[in-house]
Amino acid sequence: MQKLSFDRGWRFRLGDPPATHWQDPNDAGWRTVDLPHDWSIELERLPDAPSQASGGYFQMGRGCYRKTFEASPDWAGKHVSVEFEGVYMNAEVWLNGNLLGRHPYGYTTFTCDLTPHLKPAEDNVLLVTVDNDCQLNSRWYSGSGIYRHVWLLVASPVHVAHWGTYVTTPDVTSKRATVRAEVTVANESDMDENATLLCHVVTPEGLVLDTAERQITIGAGQRESVTAELAVPSPMLWSPETPHLYQLETELAQRGKVIDMETTAFGIRTLRFDPEVGFLLNGQETKLRGGCVHHDNGVMGAEAHDRSEERKVELHKASGYNAIRCAHNPPSPAFLDACDRLGILVIDEAFDCWREGKNPYDYHVAFPDWWQRDLDSMLYRDRNHPSIVIWSIGNEIGERNGSSDGTWWARTLADHVHAVDPTRPVTAAICTVGADADWPTTDSVFAALDIGGYNYQERQYRADHTRHPQRLMAGTESTAGEAFEHWMSVEQLPYVIGDFVWTSMDYLGEAGIGRVYYDPELKSFLGEYPWHQANCGDLDLCGFKRPQSYYRDILWSAGSPLYIAVHDPGPGDAEPKLTYWGWPDVWPNWTWPGHEGETFKVDVYAACDKVELRLNGQSLGVQPTGPSERFISTFAVPYQPGALHAIGYRDEDVVAEHEIHTVGSPVGIRLTPDRSDLTADGGDLSFVTVEVVDRAGRVNPQADNTIYFTVLGEGTLAAVGSGDPKSTESYRGHHRSVYRGRCLAVVRTTVAPGPIILRAMADGLDVAEVELQAMA
Q: Using 50, 70 and 90 to split pLDDT, how confident is the model at 571?
């Protein structure tokens, strides 16, 4: 089937379409947008926004998209449909005044058949209305609109069915792997048809290893599935360390002519889950160093551009993660493609609720009628991704204690997953139902699962293992503040296969869930306006590492074994307090003008026996830092400008050092793009780190300058942002204040090749420029 990008040249209007839209299709007042598109990230945040703190005080509402296109003569006699990877939410799709269908869930892919109402050789008008007006319908920032890709699918009457290819590797040894291809062929014609199906296994280098041929007869309006087994000698196994990808090339022919072709990427790997040995990937014990992530892309809002999804995976790999839990819905295909390509293990999750809702207008209103269609969308779309090792049927569902037929629903959903894909286990993330004494009421739902998902329940592991010795467990959510306890349990208990922190990367919405506060008591679960970021990620909204990420490096032995974290003195004499998801307000900053002589609390994270701290060469003492100290030593340090130097010892030998300095006044701006060579396809991105520096080129952590951006050449400024969880600035403006010396600018290509220059200016600072190149 031919898959054509349908992203460019849409017209958008905020609000409902005019009542006379079909009679008078004048869209002069509509603006042109290219997809993916999130209108909420463009709008002003308001203290009284109906989305409230859960939605980050962003405006949602209703909107409509319209695309006018001509049906190609080549489409005559073919089947034409449109695929939406994700629309948030309550989408209606119309073609030439004909309703094609509705789709309530904002996170699953769906298709609509255009064929019956398509006008050949004429203009056709596709209208999509999106209703995100009823709030609250999410517990985090959802975004609004057609925020993922749209594709036009053109197929001959006889073709490989949509998501009709299923590749598994049932037998794998070092000498040989069996690749089983199950291919479903659809016949949209009104007569029986014969066809020849050819399947080729192709190596990552493009070498054809094996071919299978099958003859097939498909009844009119019917579907038929055929299975072929192919061999791969000396297979290269897929893993996070070696993410080798093979391809299954499928050809469908009639009367000697190829009428359809498909290419499916897959990996060869073995999965074994056992409570006595844990999780074995390719026969090797593997502990999941995991993080939970929402679907948004930080400063880009909900827009799922391929590069922003890929960058999210790259950032996780660079920070030592080998696994991601998609919370709490199926991610974009681009995200999973990146996990396949770069090597990240995935828990693919379907729902945040079943019949018992958490908000008045969330998915519970659609679940009874739509659960199977949406679950199938996730399973059939995603089942060929080697990165996916576990399916999840829900997160903290209200029925976890068996209420509202929860036991029946857990079994029904798990059985359905196993029927569609028997190669992977099923989990669900379960949190407490109240007092610890009530925890055993979750047993009936856990019994439906292959792996018990524990949200913040590390204290239950050992007791539950005594009650249920065959139960395999995973920490599906944990906090940074309890990282030590959770990871020690993973290392010590074979039946606990991993831990997933909430969250590995910060996100919009659930405003201030991980904040530091100075009131005597926590007055609200979430933060008041202008809080709009969760502020609980190991990585901040821009992808910059926060102190807890360096602490996790030490737990995982994945990075530097030493890190200096200075506590912010805060306002006045008030004692700082943390929410449950919070981390102390610390940063590697020894630039505190006006605080000379004041005593600062300084933590040193260290995977050493002991740590010595020195200020300007003068020793401030030695502290133990091992498991009994949770790898953190604390010093009281009187502030004076200069250098703060930490030295880590093991068996009296120096094994690590870390030093931070007092930096000079800001004089310039440094621009560092993550990529300089881009593709001129209208959607490629470069994420440019913006830093305010002193004359020695050191970032000034106290800088809060407002940076003004200009883009020249074949590019546009797609977004600006910072890790400031309370900033009131727009993510779509042309200026941004740095937060602790840094912010982020995102440059997007046009469709024309050529140079792109990003220029950054600020009062009192030298102008900075960086040149990118967009290539055809």
A: confident
